[in-house]
Amino acid sequence: MKTKYIRNFAIIAHIDHGKSTLADRIMELTQTVSQRESSDQLLDNMEVEQAHGVTVKSRTVRNFYQGDDGQEYEYNFIDTPGHVDFSYEVSKSLAASDGAILLVDATQGVQAQTVANLRLALKNHLTIIPVINKIDNAAANVQATEEQIRQLRPEFAQMPILKISAKTGQNVHQVLEAIYQRIPAPVTTAASPLKALVFDSQYDSYKGVIAYIRIFDGQLQDSQKLQLMQQKVNFKAQEIGIFTPNMKKTAALNAGEVGYVITGIKDVGSVQVGDTLTSADQPTSQALASFQPARSMVYAGFYPKDGTSYAALKEAISKLALNDSSFQYLAEESEALGPGFRCGFLGIFHLQIIRERLLKEYQVEVLTTAPNATYHVYLKKPLVNQEYLTITNPVKFPDFSEIDYVTESYVKATITTPNNYLGDIMKLATQHDGEMIELSNQQELVVITYKMPVSEIAYDFFNALKAITHGYATLDTEFLDFELVDVVKIQIQINYAPVDALDIIVPRPKAAQTAKQLVQKMKYTVPRRLYPMPVQAIVENKSIARIDVPPLRKNAAVNGEKRSISKKQQLLRRQNINKRKAAQSDIKLPQSVFDAILNLNNSD
């Protein structure tokens, strides 16, 4: 199809504003899927997406639409998530699009994530089509919602705003007409060498890496020799095609189109999202400007659990990392838990989704350690050719006697919220060491910008924010820099044996309270034995909190027989020493022990 009849677009919206439902209606009206194949939230086909009711992974589908002008158009729709933890998925989709439908729920109005995703679309210079959804709902306030949208941007003031019901299909035809009327056709040069953006990928055990691509210049043909410019990897296209939404083989992909290429590459690290795909025989002279790679906000350890082998976990994580480019990992070793991986995530919900995907898609169950932030540790005696140590794992935090000072990663946290929650949010941010940078009004919403340490938002900040605002606030974070902090490492000993996987780094003023809460949690989560086990929190070689895990029953040495006190004490001492020696190499902890760290703020 000629480039002037191609439209590449995405739908951006707040969670539960009807984005997936509108996608279903578009596919139905363009007859992309038959009535037999049709189902609710067709593109949200992952178990975790259906379980949580959110879009996690971007999907792509090609539709053909017969316009009222008599011309057939090619609509390449690239799906986007709505949750703040998956804003990186949104940015990838928008990089391959030329326009976006801004969908707003008439019963809820403009919400925080609506504004956040609009910012992303405007950064990519996309044409925006504002649409009001759920007009058939009895609680809909269409006029108020329209006023809110018009106040978002000056260009929205006179722009026609479409009013639809994605559920019933009412006026969705108007959206299909607006797509070719308002969104521009791709700007391409067909005669130029092949230049395509790899905006997503997935892994297949038999086919290898499958790259999702948007072609900007030239033409891609089946069996063509190709090159990934950033990774300098050459390969032959095993198959190329489009999404309908399932993969469908084609002979060629032309300039402006969106599709896939089966690379046959089995090394998952060889294909990077954001790379430029070109011809190996006649490469383009200049690569596309790649978007910024995802920056992990929190880190946690993944270790094999129960019958899961390390090899199975390694294979599952490597494939999942290819399917989710914002997920990062590095092999590590724990004395208590054995070999595992230090993994980076965009947020706590992202961590939860990855853990669930490992279980449901790869049948791999993992033991997850407490999340932590990134620190730069400057030593009193600096290492050769190394100014500081980058610490993402508390186990590798140096001894306090070697440290000169420590800096922690800070972010600019932009919170968009209805103004009636402003007081509660400011109190919450202050409790998490937030420093206000800016406060501005945007219609009935307030945008507050804070400078915050990552460690303070790594645990429960976003969950607490959702709780106090009933889900109507959003959090958008952007890395700022590293700043000086006074932190210490809390080491946990169970039965006098250190458990490195439980180590955490906390601000010094909070160390005593955190340690006390932590050992109290351990009392009820560490599995009991036939004898009491002490749990201690060690800070700078000093025990600052201790509690005993009670035994399953009384000690067998105290049996009521008439013996001298000294003999009883000797027997108890010998028994405890022997049992503790045996226990030091046999400490197996359930996930509930590590989850206790996440729930410290809920302690009484």
Automatic annotation (TrEMBL):
Q: Primary place of residence?
A: membrane
Q: Name one GO biological process term.
A: positive regulation of translation
Recorded hits in Pfam families, A to Z, give: EFG_C, GTP_EFTU, GTP_EFTU_D2, LepA_C
Q: Which SMART domains match?
A: EFG_C (SM00838)
Alphabetically ordered keywords of this record: Cell membrane, Elongation factor, GTP-binding, Hydrolase, Membrane, Nucleotide-binding, Protein biosynthesis
Q: Where in the cell is it found?
A: Cell membrane
EC id? 3.6.5.n1
Q: Which domain of life is it from?
A: Bacteria
What GO cellular component is one of the record's annotations?
Answer: plasma membrane
Note the NCBIfam families from the entry.
lepA, small_GTP
Job description of the protein: Required for accurate and efficient protein synthesis under certain stress conditions. May act as a fidelity factor of the translation reaction, by catalyzing a one-codon backward translocation of tRNAs on improperly translocated ribosomes. Back-translocation proceeds from a post-translocation (POST) complex to a pre-translocation (PRE) complex, thus giving elongation factor G a second chance to translocate the tRNAs correctly. Binds to ribosomes in a GTP-dependent manner.
Q: What is this protein called?
A: Elongation factor 4
Q: Which organism is it from?
A: Bombilactobacillus mellis
- Its gene is lepA
